[in-house]
Amino acid sequence: MGDQKIDFNQILHLIRKYYKAVVTVVVLLIIGFGAFFQVGTEEAGVVTRFGKHVRTVSPGLKMKIPFVERIYKVPVERQKKQEFGFRTEQAGVRTEYSRTGSVTEDEAIMLTGDLNLANVQWVVQYRVSDPYNYLFKVRDPDNTLRDLSEAVTRQIVGDRTVNEVLTVGRAEIANEVKALLQDMTREYSLGVQIAQVVLQDINPPESVKQAFNAVNEAQQERETLINEAKSEYNKVIPRARGQAQETIQQAEGYATQRVNNAQGEAARFNALYNEYIKAPEVTKKRIYLETLQEVLPKLGNKIITSENGNNVIPLLKKELN
């Protein structure tokens, strides 16, 4: 007991003797650990002094005033996402999703412009572009962005018909949602940049899914028949137009030929008439002889006699020989 009492007194004596040095070392250690901090490569550091923003620092080893300044680290290079109408339960090679639950169903069911219902599932991908606004301008920026995303999507879908939402209008809807959502985040000073809006899946509600499928099949069949009719039209009409053009060209050629022949005959007649005026008897006799020369070879075995029938027998014998 005596030895223990002596040792304890010695310890107290040492503490009284060196307490200033001990306190100094402890304070220096606390200040050292509190003055330095590390900002990751995907982060930005927002430094506040007594609650007021004083600077934003880049990645690396930085210093601050202990107990006076405070550091907030914000992942500015990391892309974040929000899911609507479904939730990712397990990510990996075969990602598993969950589409059941009152929350996801309430998010997904939307009213279209023609007063129909559509089950819309989409994803908003974004990143922090202004760390100061993201931390201090809005109390809960992620939930605020979620509310804005749902409101904007319902507005855009409400301006479209159900057929546009389910089929051809998906890309246009996604682009409009992205543009309007970015404007809203800028107006609310959320400090985020919308990278992409993806319409994951759009279906009619389960209660009317069969009816919608029947309507889609009918529309597809109608489109098929229309395409077939257009194909047949493109085959028949050009052929008919070609035949009509050919007939017109043949008629025009025939008309040209007849006109040219008529003009030639008229010119021949005029020339002959002019010769007839100059020498009527000679021209008349020449025309007569030329006509006989053209006609007689076509008569075959014919005998031409005078009115009295003289010299018929010798001609017949000559013909028989």
Topology (SSEs and partners):
Layout: H1 2-35, E1 36-39, E2 43-49, E3 52-57, E4 60-63, E5 69-75, E6 80-84, E7 87-90, E8 96-98, H2 102-108, E9 109-111, E10 117-128, H3 131-136, H4 141-158, H5 162-166, H6 170-188, E11 192-203, H7 209-278, H8 280-295, H9 312-320
Antiparallel strand pairs: 1-4, 2-3, 2-5, 6-10, 7-8, 9-10, 10-11
Helix pairs in contact: 4-6, 7-8
Describe the structure.
The relative contact order is 0.06. Residues 1-5 have low confidence and may be disordered. This protein is α+β, with helices and mostly antiparallel strands and 321 residues long. Helix 4 (141-158) packs across helix 6 (170-188) and helix 7 packs across helix 8 (280-295). The longest helix has 70 residues, at 209-278. The protein is rod-shaped and about 190 Å long. The strands form four sheets. Strands 6, 9, 10 and 11 form a four-stranded antiparallel β-sheet that branches. A three-stranded antiparallel β-sheet has the order 3-2-5. Strand 9 and strand 10 (117-128) form a beta hairpin. 57% of the residues lie in helices and 21% in strands. It has nine helices and eleven strands. It has helices at 2-35, 102-108, 131-136, 141-158, 162-166, 170-188, 209-278, 280-295, 312-320; strands at residues 36-39, 43-49, 52-57, 60-63, 69-75, 80-84, 87-90, 96-98, 109-111, 117-128, 192-203.
